[in-house]
Write a structure and sequence with these properties.
Helix content: 25-40%
Radius of gyration: 19 Å
CATH class of the largest domain: Alpha Beta
CATH topology of the largest domain: Peroxisomal Thiolase, Chain A, domain 1
Number of domains: 2
Number of helices: 11
Oligomer: single chain
CATH superfamily of the largest domain: Thiolase/Chalcone synthase
Strand content: 15-25%
Number of strands: 13
Shape: globular
Length: 333
């Protein structure tokens, strides 16, 4: 039976480093305050206007293709996960395809925020398993820096996010127990939708945006941090146990855990619940902040570069984010 496997990974982050001390020059915060609550020391912002997530994705895609030993022209489908698309429409996948010189290649945007990479992985895996496509590119890319409130009012959310892109190239395999995507499980519960969201612009409003909405700060991300923490630390262990149990595995069988990088405290709390050793967990939030859909492939791409994971290793992914959406995936590299 045909299965899917990872062929290559790539990542790219802007060169502009923004430290906690830099943010403290913009609004009332401090390096100590941010690190204690999030684990973040710095993040990357785009260097100037005119750079969108599809621009950040281009060098990441080229890196993934080089690592996979294939050409960009061999990509026959694109899945682009992002919270921060280049424009409201068309999708960022279309912009990326044009920049890569891939006319006619299908491109799908996935708007599942922090869980976007996992939803995309499930779609790519299904496409390859059924024989629809042979080289599926999954991209997670974000430009958050142009959409956060860099003032005292918005500081609780503004300190969290950074810009960046990462991607994975998947292809078919029939190698049995050899490398491949083993299982992906995803969920959603709209009961928590307004606990982490942007209220405006909204197509349900007439007009979609007004000066009043701007003045009231409805154009900026809003989050109930306590509720997000509670949901995340409950749902993540549940879905991880579900995926492992269905495949007759335990955390002791996992060589590397790559969680979404939303808050280091959340990941440490989840690992404590799972009784999983910290030296087998990828943490890069201290350098990049929350890069949303890019965070899992960025974490794994760096781990591969650093030699933390080898061919044949079992790797676990997990994410929780706006929607609420969450999920987990089990793969063998």
């Amino acid at each position: 039976m045909t299965r899917s496997k990872f062929l290559g990974f790539g990542h790219y982050v802007p060169t502009k480093v923004v430290t906690n001390d830099d943010l403290a020059q913009m609004f009332d915060t401090s390096d100590e305050w941010i690190q204690k609550r999030t684990g973040i020391k710095e993040r990357r912002f785009i260097e100037h206007a005119g750079i969108g997530p599809s621009d950040l994705a281009v060098p990441a895609v080229k890196m993934a293709c080089e690592n996979a030993g294939v050409t960009v022209e061999q990509i026959d489908a694109i899945i682009f996960a992002t919270l921060s698309p280049d424009h409201d429409f068309p999708g960022s996948g279309c912009f990326l395809a044009d920049k890569l010189g891939l006319p006619g290649v299908p491109a799908l945007d996935v708007r599942n925020q922090c869980s976007g990479f996992l939803y995309s992985l499930q779609i790519a895996d299904a496409w390859i398993r059924c024989g629809m496509y042979r080289r599926v590119l999954i991209v997670g890319a974000e430009v958050h820096s142009t959409g956060i409130d860099l003032s005292d009012k918005g500081r609780d959310v503004a300190v969290l996010f950074g810009d960046g892109a990462a991607c994975a190239l998947l292809g078919p395999t029939d190698e049995g127990e050899e490398p491949g995507v083993i299982d992906v499980e995803v969920h959603a519960d709209g009961a928590g939708a307004k606990l982490l969201w942007i209220e405006a612009p909204a197509s349900s409003q007439m007009p979609r945006i007004t000066h009043e909405m701007i003045d009231e700060g409805k154009i900026w991300p809003a989050m109930n941090g306590k509720q997000v923490f509670r949901w995340a630390t409950t749902k993540l262990p549940e879905v991880i146990h579900s995926v492992l149990g269905r495949n007759h595995l335990s955390m002791s069988d996992i060589d590397l855990f790559v969680p979404h990088q939303a808050n280091r405290r959340i990941n440490e709390f989840v690992c404590q619940k799972l009784e999983f050793p910290s030296d087998k967990v990828v943490h890069n939030i201290e350098r990049y902040g929350n890069t949303t859909a890019a965070s899992i492939p960025l974490g794994l791409s760096e781990a591969i570069e650093e030699g933390r994971v080898q061919k044949g290793d079992s790797v676990l992914f997990a994410a929780f984010g706006a929607g609420f959406t969450w999920g987990a995936a089990l793969v063998r590299l």
